[in-house]
Amino acid sequence: MKIAIYRSGRVSVPRMLYGSLALGAVAAAAACGSSSSSTSASSGKSQPASTSSPSSAAAAVTISAKSVPGVGTVLVNGKGQTLYLLTSEKGGKITCTDDNGCTKVWPDTELPKGMTAATAGSGIQASMLGTVKSSDGSLYATYHGWPLYTYSGDSGPGQKNGEGITSFGGTWYVLGTSGNPVTSSHSQPGTSSTGSSGHGY
User: Fold this and answer.
1) Where are the domains of the chain?
2) How many helices (H) and strands (E) does the chain have?
3) 195 vs 83, 167, 198, 200, CA distance in Å?
4) What is the pLDDT at residue 53?
5) Mean pLDDT, residues 148-165 taken together
């Protein structure tokens, strides 16, 4: 078989081989373009959705002071809801639990994951804020050693419908900025959260 010779300058290259080299160069260029294209596409991956702001979690457990009719200036949470203590929990001993149904009536102030303390709002003594740990390791906000609760019977800020109720082994009172329970003439000693006297168990 005869091979035609293509002469270019001083180098003789078989014409068929020259054609193969040209095709190879085109293929290589195409491959590089393909590689560049795929790299560009991979760099455009969507980013994961951002998580909620830590400041919003802190706002949920911000403890402040607010004037509530009938009891004066007392502690409230970040939503303005009145906060209560249970007298049987003096010193941070938790007796209001999920197991005995207490927290369904008196929701606790649990700290979100990653938070180690409640946030001090206006009008309170920040040094009195603390925490107590439950048996499952969850942290709850305290003030002067008292675990803090809201009352399901309060439909909004500025209410104190839980004041003086006796249930779950103690009596519920709103908490003053001094860290002591605030009693009032409107309290209801001897009544439980279920509407009858006793401990509410």
Assistant:
1) 5-40, 56-182
2) 3, 12
3) 20, 10, 9, 9
4) 55
5) 97
Tell me: pLDDT of 17 over 70: no
Contacts of 114 (CB under 8 A, 6+ apart): 54, 57
Locate 13 and state its tokens: 């290259």
96 vs 146: CA distance, rounded Å: 12
Beta 181-182 vs 139-143: how paired, if at all?
A: unpaired
Model pTM score: 0.65
User: Would you state the pLDDT for residue 124?
Assistant: 97
